Amino acid sequence: MISLNDFYQGFRDPQTIRHLAQLIAQQAAKTTQQINIMEVCGGHTHTIMKYGILQLLPSNIHFIHGPGCPVCVMPKERIDHAAVLASQTDTILVTLGDMIRVPGSKGSLAQFRSEGCDIRPIYDPLDTLAIARDNPDKTVIFFAIGFETSTPMTAALLAQAEAQNIDNILFHINHVLVPPAIDVVMSDSRSKVNAFIGPAHVSVISGSKIYQSTVDKYKTPVVVSGFEPVDVMESILRIVRQKVAGKAELDNQYSRSVSYEGNIAAQQLVDKYFMVRDSFRWRGLGPIANSALTLRPEYQHRDAERIYAHILPTVEIDDHKACMCGDILRGLANPKDCKVFGRGCSPQSPLGSCMVSSEGACNAYYRYGEVNNAN
Amino acid sequence: MCLSVPSKVVEIHDDATVTVDTLGVKRRVSCHLITDPLQIGDFVLIHIGFVMNKIDHKDAQESLELYQQIVAQMELETEQ
């Protein structure tokens, strides 16, 4: 019988990692082509750096870090929105994880909180219900972030707020979609990416099917991969095998929880409350058509972006000139190419979002660079 | 924020929540996103307080067995 420990230790076993590295090297020796794998998600970036995977790979396999960190791709003006909303005397702003540390143009949400704004980081979106119930005289605004993985949780919160008639919860929606970001990366003539590792948790919700168009359009392999080091090594092996065989197919390494169709119930919940937004400006990538979600018209009474439109700034704000987050998110630069990496920009004092987020590429290089002796 | 963590269902509650064990840490999470009923002993993936999906025991077991075979085979080749 399988145990919980197997899910952790079994998929982190050093011996297995070492032997998978040997198999990868054997396969990679069969081709002279350069294999440039983009790991779309910051979770994979961290696995790759933390477990020293780069140094286990042959010289013709390279990793290019992708735009799949929701904190990293949030433009400054959206963080400014959150700050303005939180600055109202009758509001409480709630949000997830690292978002509170990302600098906007006038500071991070953490700084605004230290100045007296009621900003509450939460682990579970449903915690918002209790905050709203406990503060009936306040408007609680959920600053919603994340890719396909996190959107259903916002939908579930909205469903509960509606079902329980909790009227003092509003939403500022920043949910973004993976496939349009991949399109931006691949349609850049400078792109060198010729294979993808897709994040498993996105596909747990959306199914592996969301990458079919990437495979078809760009003739590149996509392997949906788990986050443990053995998962990543197996996915690399599957990519190299495809490359050697001259194939470009959609493959699912994480079949223990991902299906082609995904979690239909979660998808239906998302469809009920959300629709595709015409355009969304991504940090580093600029505006991308149809790349994000917004609330459906029948739920506009919950839309903080609409209700507070008269006080929200509309100016678009770019990153500091010295910061290379844009090129890093496009897969055109490595964190160590950036002149301020580790000097003006560190996790303690980040300039760019790739250093702020614990899943950002710069943060991973800063924390684990020595493990990999990464260049 | 993107870690989705394997956990074991240890208690089932009436309000569409279950208590899960994540390597010794217990916490209550929501089942609002899944339609299949959960049983004690099921393995699930958790993301920001929600069960996203079950983890298939059989598939996970098969993966682990495959890796064991790879290790055994490679060590045999190394010895020869």
What does this structure look like?
The complex is a heterodimer of chains A (about 375) and B (about 80). By secondary structure, chain A is an alpha/beta fold. Chain A has 16 helices and eleven strands. The model of chain A has no long low-confidence stretch (mean pLDDT about 95). In chain A, helix 3 packs parallel to helix 16. Chain A is globular and about 65 Å long. In chain A, the strands form three sheets. A five-stranded parallel β-sheet of chain A has the order 2-1-7-8-9. Chain A has a four-stranded parallel β-sheet with strand order 4-3-5-6, sandwiched between helices. With about 80 residues, chain B is α+β, with helices and mostly antiparallel strands. Chain B has one domain (about 5-80): SH3 type barrels. In chain B, about 30% of the residues lie in helices and about 40% in strands. Chain B has one helix and five strands. Chain B has one helix spanning about 55-80, and strands at about 5-10, 15-20, 25-30, 45, 50-55. Chain B has a five-stranded antiparallel β-sheet, with no helix packed on it. At the A-B interface, helix 1, helix 2, helix 7, helix 9 and helix 12 of A face strand 1, strand 4, strand 5 and helix 1 of B. Chain B: InterPro entries: Hydrogenase_HupF/HypC (IPR001109). Chain B: Belongs to the HupF/HypC family. Chain B: GO terms for molecular function: carbon dioxide binding; iron ion binding.
